Amino acid sequence: MFTDATSLIRENPHQMSYGIAVSDVDDDGDFEIIIAGFGFPNRVLKWNGRMLIDIADEDLADADRQAIGVAAADINGDGREEIYILNSDTFDGPKRLGDRLFMNRGLKWVDLFSLLDNEPTANLMAGRSVACVDRDGDGIYGFFVANYGGPMRLYELNNRGLVKDMAAQAGVNHVAGGRSLVSLPLVSTRMDIFAGNERGPNFLFYNRGDGTFEESAERFGLSDSLENVRGIAVGDFNGDGRFDVVYGNWEGPHRMFIRTEAGPFRNAAPPEMALPSRVRTVIAADFDNDGYEELFFNNIGEPNRLFAFRDGRWTRVNLGAAGEPYGFGTGAAVGDFNNDGRLELLIAHGESNLQPLTLYQPLPNLCHWLRIKPLTRYGAPARGAVVRLVGGRRVQIRAICAGSGYLCQMEPVAHFGLGPEPESELRVEVTWPDGLMRSMPIPEIDQLYVVEYPA
């Protein structure tokens, strides 16, 4: 499936790296890759036309912290994404060094938590993942933090521009062994939050539509209280047009929860997929552009795994170079970093040993593709928006990534493979987190379409 393209990373030292996020860091319209460095500088990799180069300035590099998670979102409605860096210097409970919330002010990135008025709000609990959520559909996001051994946080800006924790008001300030997060319209019509936990049941925060949430994991069959979740991926894994959930349990059976007609989810993971592993990130993406997403399981200290939907069932397939049997994977992300219509896979390593980043590209084929980038009313990526591609009798569905499971966040683009012989008539439907929908025909394939918020 993959060939090794790591040589395209110009500077690639051995270090401890963790979470990865994809965002337009330098505001030039292209996406960069943010990598959390644990005891090493954070990195920002940019494709310069020939290779990936590090453009992180001193503020974003933040070399003195122990970063593990990262996410981006527009929290002030200026059309540019802020960057949340989750630092963790302890396993659970209180920690010494707080997180960073970087906002670009002109030519300089400023950590909002370092400002005097925001210092009392800073997160000083051991966090494990961060995702963004637009809980009321107004196009302005907050950052939701899954803490381990302390209350979960929901950071938003108030009308004075101060950072406030709104978790209690929203009804999500639960305490757990927080590990991973996804946020999208999973069971309601607004952005819900699924939190995968360790040593206790998972949380599913159902969005009531008024800015508050109701914990509903048991009601929807997702509590899974005896396992320890790591990476989470969301997609339509049985072709019924609704979102399902796949996640990896640390050294426990992995899950594929399929949404039933009655509402709850049921576990339908085939035995080979369920086989326990030392799992980290889980990614759903159409790497070969055949029109069906694959499922990538990144493991630490043992081979990675890839599953494809072939002949009506999920089958393990050969990863090629990306198998990494001796890799200490800690995080992974996908994106079309060189704009060739194929998704690259970047893997971070560390924790057990110092290792460089690795980059993989899918093997070339004759399949076509389509990419959809919805924007908020303010011009920022519309994370949490749902994109449907209708062609013939088949519908493909994607959610623009607001936070992808464990420590990471994918590119804010809906990538669709079309196979070697695409349908002649294609239509895209974009639904924003406030419920507004826009439908548009696709005149040409093998293109990226930017879809603006309806006027």
What structural keywords apply?
455 residues, mainly beta, 4-stranded antiparallel beta sheet, 3% helix
Explain what the structure shows.
The chain is an all-beta fold and 455 residues long. Helices cover 3% and strands 44% of the residues. It has helices at 58-61, 167-170, 271-274; strands at residues 2-4, 17-23, 32-37, 43-47, 52-54, 67-73, 82-87, 100-105, 108-111, 127-133, 142-151, 153-157, 163-165, 175-184, 192-198, 203-207, 213-215, 229-235, 244-249, 255-259, 265-267, 279-285, 294-299, 305-310, 313-317, 329-335, 344-349, 358-362, 368-374, 386-391, 394-399, 414-419, 426-431, 437-441, 448-451. The strands form 8 sheets. Strands 10, 11, 12, 13, 14, 15, 16 and 17 form an 8-stranded antiparallel β-sheet that branches. Strands 1-28-27-26 form a 4-stranded antiparallel β-sheet, with no helix packed on it. Strands 2-3-4-5 form a 4-stranded antiparallel β-sheet, with no helix packed on it. It starts with a strand and ends with a strand.
Uncertain residue segments: none
Structural class computed from helices and strand pairing? mainly beta
Strand content of the residues, in percent?
Answer: 35-45%
Tally of strands: 35
Question: What distance lies between the first and last C-alpha atoms, to the nearest angstrom?
Answer: 42 Å
Specify the number of helices: 3
Gyration radius from CA atoms, angstroms: 20 Å
Q: Biggest sheet, in brief?
A: 8 strands, antiparallel
Which bin fits the share of residues in helices?
A: under 10%
